[in-house]
Amino acid sequence: SMPSEMLLKIFSYLDAVSLLAVGCVNKRFHELANDNGIWLKLYSRSLHPKWTIWKMKSKQTETVSLGCAALHDKEPGYWKKEYIFKKTSAFKTRVMRLVKFLDPYTGLPCKNKEAMKVSGLSWIIVLKDKNGKEHVVEKPNLSFKDTSVTVLWHGTDWPCLDILSTLKLFGVTPLLPDQSIPPNKNGPRRFSLIAEYHLANLTENSVMVGADELVQLFSLSPGLLVGMWKGKNEIAFVMANLHYNQLLERSILGSATVQYSPPPNKPLLDDIDSEYGLHDYRLHLDLHGRNCVYLCGSFKCLFCRKRDIENGYVRLIVVNLKDNRKHLPIIGTLGICWETDVFKGNVKDCFVMDLTLLDETGMPFWCFSAPVHMELSTKSSGLYDYMGHIYTADYADSEGKVCIEFVWLEETKEYIIVSLVLYVSTKKVNSWYGTNY
Fold it and tell me: What DSSP letter does each residue of 60-122 carry, written as one string?
């Protein structure tokens, strides 16, 4: 029953976040909270002083600004949209500026954690059932590695898998971030779609990574691990493995419905080497189980001759089976750690692989973070230095394949990597360099 003029006067004392919140109360409040006069004041106060057109040195200047045609000739909510656009643009610029600093060891941004903190970035998953109802799962646990972050969600009120159709992974940031104020869960937020997964027939259509006494792990590309209670059709936890390469862009620059698509690579012309694009690759490889690291190594000067290109793949040999000087020991027993509110465990004979392949200019060429399972090979070791069972671990996506061979040494209770080969799709190479291999 309060007159609109009085409500507008009250609203004029609110900050932007509170104004957006009060606009969600009802239709009348929404219309009043879109008032151009209120938002023009907020817009004017928020801009940098170098924009002299908006400098307000006196009440007279403010009166002139608010009485101009820019106020009366615009549709309701115009200055609200302009204010949000300017604030979010400045915020994205500030965050993207932080990720320009590269780590010479990995070739990836070295200030990812700082950028995530500045942005107030978090991740959520949205489960959608077959009736269209959505279930939002927040409050994940984070584990940071050199080139990736592992995000784990668990709880006691997961919907039954039988009724679920899709799972969407979102990056979430405050719509109007303010470093002086902690992010408010109930405040306006911006969603950026990272990936969407189909859960129908999950146990039949996905790759089983492993199991222990309590859970079974199923892998969905890209980089998602779903833990199911053993003997039940219920989710125990969900684990997402996010590689740092373009992580912030995908978590911030996308929309709630469309994933962010990075710009195409601009190849550097090379008039000397006829094998351009097939030399001086660098690889950074991490094998971990979420809480522990089994292998962390960098490999330089990787190359491929034209005769090694076959079946649509470029072959890069990282660890040669016949060169025992490059064979790599694994620290600890391979497995993926998991936990819920009550239980925790470790699924053996699997791990998370973080791969970062850089081209000759140091640009990330092929990157992923994904769970990988091991299988016992039927062949026995023919190496004189290592006598034991051979295990293989393979990964494949649209951009390439990774093939690893391990030998298990019973005497020392450790794995040795005796072969590591990357197969990069020629489609990926041609798209990246604008060539035709």
Answer: HHHHHHHTSHHHHSSPTTHHHHHHHHHHHHHHHHHHHHHTTSBPTTTSSBS-HHHHHHHHT-E
